[in-house]
Amino acid sequence: MNKENRGELYLIPTPLGKNSSYSIPLELINKIDNLKYFIAESEKGLRRFIKNQTPKKSQENLKIKIINKSIKNIEYKNYLNPCKNGFDIGLLSDAGCPCIADPGSEIVNIAHENKIKVIPIIGPSSILLAMMSSGLNGQNFAFNGYLPVKINELEKKLNELEKKSLDNNQSQIFIETPYRNMRLFNTCINKLKTHTKLCVAIDINMPSENILTTTIAKWKNKKINFHKKPSVFIIQSELPI
Fold first, then answer.
1. Are 23 and 122 in contact (CB under 8 A)?
2. In terms of Cα–Cα distance, which of 200, 239, 232, 205 is closest to 218?
3. Of 25, 127, 134, 161, which sits most exposed with the smallest number of CB within 10 A?
């Protein structure tokens, strides 16, 4: 507890998967060990993370608030009351960095509005790691989140992103629910231009990690199956040579 000042909001990264190669820094482990208040994507994910990283920490008296789409921002304001009383809070998602393609931005925005210091901790982001390892334009890129599920809308969106990539020399990043990976991949192969480059970054930070970038034309001749494996997709369109 910080009696003189307000508590701080720590944005805590978590491993990208069960067998992730990410090692939590000792300084962060010590911080987690001293935290009582947490805001999390799920209670189960939070408790599992704490058990794995600080197994000696008692979880009996933890104060946990869950981020939920049904919760209104006015309720989220109460989540930060411990900070106003001098206690630090840890904000986590189930995997990766909170607020990046994961819940948490509403909480951080409220923290800024209430002059609560926000402290981001370095950790794995599948989106950033995919971009780093893609070989595509890392100077100008955009994250588009999840694309439409309906096939006609998906095809239209992919064509829009391909054109945007060409017009702006901009890499376009998107993700999908793992069980729909192959559906999205096959749609990319069938609908994008043959000279467009596609990166598929699979199981990032895991022993089974596989990151491949090549043209749609060459993808058509490859056999690959990453059904139900967390993946990031990146496309970059160029004029044919």
1. no
2. 200
3. 25
Looking at residues 65-72, what average pLDDT do you find? 82
Prediction pTM value? 0.89
H helix intervals, the chain: 26-34, 43-53, 73-79, 81-84, 105-113, 126-134, 151-168, 181-191, 216-219
Three-class secondary structure of residue 139 per DSSP: coil
> What's the CA gap between 54 and 219, in Å, rounded?
43
Average per-residue pLDDT for the chain = 93
Order of strands across the sheet that contains 118-120: 63-66, 37-40, 89-92, 9-12, 118-120
Residue 140: give its domain's CATH number. 3.30.950.10
Query: Residue 4: inside a domain, yes or no?
Result: no
Whether residue 138 sits in one domain with residue 96:
no
Domain of residue 231, residue span: 126-236
pLDDT over 90 (residue 1): no
The amino acid occupying position 117 is K
Distance CA 5, CA 86 (A): 6
**Residue that is last in its domain, among 120, 135, 158:** 120
Q: How many domains does the chain have?
A: 2
How many angstroms separate the CA atoms of 69 and 126, rounded? 23
Nearest CA to 65 out of 106, 34, 25 is that of 106
Contact 49, 95 (CB under 8 A): no
